[in-house]
Amino acid sequence: MLGALIFIVLVLLASIKQINQYQEGVKFTLGKFSGIMKPGWRLIIPVFQSYQKIDMRIRTVDVPGQEAITKDNISVNVNAVIYYKVRDAEKAIIRVENFFFAVSQLAQTTMRNIIGEVNLDELLSGREAIANKIKNIVDKATDAWGIEVHSVELKDVTLPEEMKRVIGKQAEAEREKRAVIIKAEGEAIAAENLTKAARTLAQSQGALHLRTLNALNDLSSDKSNTVIFTIPLEILKALDRTNPRANANKNQRNENSL
Q: For an engineered disulfide with 158, which of 77, 103, 122, 195 has Cβ 3.0 to 4.6 Å away?
């Protein structure tokens, strides 16, 4: 009697299985699916029943670097990270042999196919859009496995060294182009302002003379500068004719010569 009681206790202890809060258990009875085991202590009849635990938390899969050729025939190496979780434990166990490996392989294949449909510029500038496209395709394909894909992130895009140099030259040429355009725009604005200034000086009497004197005053503030200001000979002759003393001396010289 005591031996039978000990045997029953041992069987009972062996039948108690613990399912953690973040897990679900898939139970089989005589090899057939018989239900989902929720978190807590659950009973499994030895020999007749078996179970398998499934982690229901979000998983992170590092998709290894994939060699792919873009639409414009440029070889790139791309790696990514995919975040997913098991939505239906029954499907994840019954409909696919190893869902972890299956999701990783599907993500690699899909990533190579999507990269082959875009140009290099689209790949470098539109990572988010490409990642969303990969996510939608993988999520749709894994829905039958009870898998829900949360997001896909492209970690790195590696280019050949030759292509890096070409892209560097392209970026340098683009910056030079923008510099020339900005300089030309500045010269156009300066020319327009000079035209307005010249028109104003021409329309105002004495304005040009005042501007000249102002420029000379600015130059004279620096003692180290030597300013050579050329005056046409006609102006000197005109000033000489307007000087009374100079005219009197000239008349006296003429009289003495006579």
A: 77
Indicate which CATH number applies to the domain containing 96.
3.30.479.30
Residues 6+ apart with CB under 8 A from 205: none
Residue 73 · residue 121 · CB < 8 Å: no
Contact 99, 124 (CB under 8 A): no
Whole-structure pTM value: 0.62
pLDDT digits (tens, 9 = 90+) for 151-185: 999 888 888 777 767 777 777 888 888 888 998 88
Task: Identify whether residues 37 and 84 lie together within a single domain.
Answer: no
Does residue 63 share a domain with residue 51?
no
Distance between CA atoms of residues 239 and 120, nearest Å: 76
Planar angle of CA 250, 254, 258, nearest 5 degrees: 170
Residues 6+ apart with CB under 8 A from 10: none
Sign of CA dihedral 140, 142, 145, 151: negative
State the residue range of the domain holding 80.
Answer: 59-164
Give the span between the Cα atoms of 63 and 79, in whole angstroms. Answer: 6
**Same domain, yes or no: 18 and 92:** no
